[in-house]
Design a protein that fits this description.
A hairpin with a 6-residue loop joins strand 1 and strand 2. It is elongated and about 80 Å long. The chain contains 8 helices and 2 strands. Helix 5 crosses helix 6. It is mostly helical and about 210 residues long.
């Protein structure tokens, strides 16, 4: 069994064949900042075992609190805690998650799928983060919440969020399935339009100053 092979959905926490893989998954989720309840859900570890891993691996206490449960619009529509760039980050993770799931031969443990997609998302966005240090990327706990909104398997037809490809720029973006599509626009196109307005305003100001100086 290859160390990077998917953990199947059918794998049991106490199965000797899979125990070491679940422990590895737990360690990875700890290092990525997963909430204890999230880690326990997909690895079967007790709260005490997870707390001990946090201490050993990070030197910190395990994060307290419940798992995040945001509304679908938190990821699809700009708001005061996250703008268009946040919507693009959420869409980037969603796209990776759905592509990895589609490529699998059999259903995987969702914790493994979540973590694998999240690590791929971070590798993809690392260069952007280096160029834009203030860019707000989603966390593993955000990713879990987003995963629940995207649905899984046969339940996907009832999902509250789905990806849509923009016919103008080709980017994929998240839309709320129960809302009118006419009121949901591509964040990449919106950013481009804002940039164009900034350029136009800059040119107008420069031309005005030049006229005054002349």
């Amino acid at each position: 069994m290859h160390p990077g092979a998917p953990i199947p959905e059918s794998a049991q926490f106490d199965d000797p064949i899979w125990v070491s893989r679940f422990l590895d998954l737990a360690n990875t989720m700890v290092l990525l900042g997963g909430k204890p309840k999230l880690i326990a859900r997909y690895t079967g570890l007790s709260s005490k075992a997870i707390a001990e891993r946090y201490k050993r691996l990070t030197g910190q206490e395990a994060p307290a609190g419940r798992l995040q449960q945001a509304q679908p619009k938190h990821y699809a529509i700009p708001h005061n805690r996250g703008g268009l760039d946040w919507n693009l980050q959420a869409a980037a993770f969603a796209s990776i998650y759905l592509k990895i799931e589609a490529a699998l031969d059999e259903p995987a443990n969702r914790g493994w799928l979540l973590t694998t997609a999240f690590q791929a998302y971070y590798r993809l966005t690392d260069p952007i983060q280096q160029a834009l240090p203030r860019l707000s990327r989603i966390t593993l706990n955000n990713a879990y919440d987003l995963m629940t909104h995207l649905g899984y398997g046969y339940g996907r037809k009832y999902a509250s969020l789905t990806l849509k490809d923009c016919p103008d720029c080709g980017a994929s973006y998240l839309v709320i399935t129960e809302a009118e599509l006419d009121n949901q626009s591509c964040p990449m196109c919106a950013i481009q339009k804002r940039y164009e307005r900034l350029v136009e305003n800059s040119e107008r100001i420069a031309a005005s100053r030049h006229a005054c100086e002349g």
